[in-house]
Amino acid sequence: MSQSPEPLLADLLSRDTQRVWASACAVIRLDDKAALDELTSHLPDIERRTEHLDLGGALFPNAEHLAQALRVLRAHRDGQCRCQPYPGYLFYNPEKEAEAGRVKILSHTPPDWHMTYSCQCSVCGTNYAVEQGEYHYTWWQWRRA
Ligand SMILES: [Zn+2]
User: Fold this and answer.
1) Separation of 73 CA from ligand 1 center, angstroms?
2) 23 Cα–ligand 1 center, Å
C-alpha cells in the first residue's frame, strides 16, 4: 500500500493539536518505505514544530502517540527494524500485526482479557513476549524475549 506523505507531514507541522494527533497515529502504523523516507527527511522540522504542544487526552495522554510517531521515524532514520519501537507503545495489537504479516504469533496463553503472546518479528526474527491487559482500553506491552 502506497501512501502520500505530504498530508501527513503538513499535519505534523501544523501545530493544530487534532491534526498532529491524527497524523501521529497514522505515522505509527505507516508501513511504506518511501513515505517513511520522506517524513524522516523532515524529522528535525517535525521535532521542532511539535515541541511543547499540549495534545491533551482523557484516559490516555495523546502526547504518547506523538512520542511514538517520533520513535518510529527515528528508528527508520537509524535503519532499525520496524519492530524496534514496539516496546515503547501500548497499542500494537499482535493479532493485527500478524494479519499484516509483520510478526508471527508463536504461541499464546488461553484467550482472555489478560493473556500473553509469544511473537517473532517476520523481518529481523526478534522474539517478543506481549502482555495483553485491560484498563479502560485494551493495551499490549511488548518486551524483547
Ligand atoms: Zn524486527
Assistant:
1) 15
2) 23
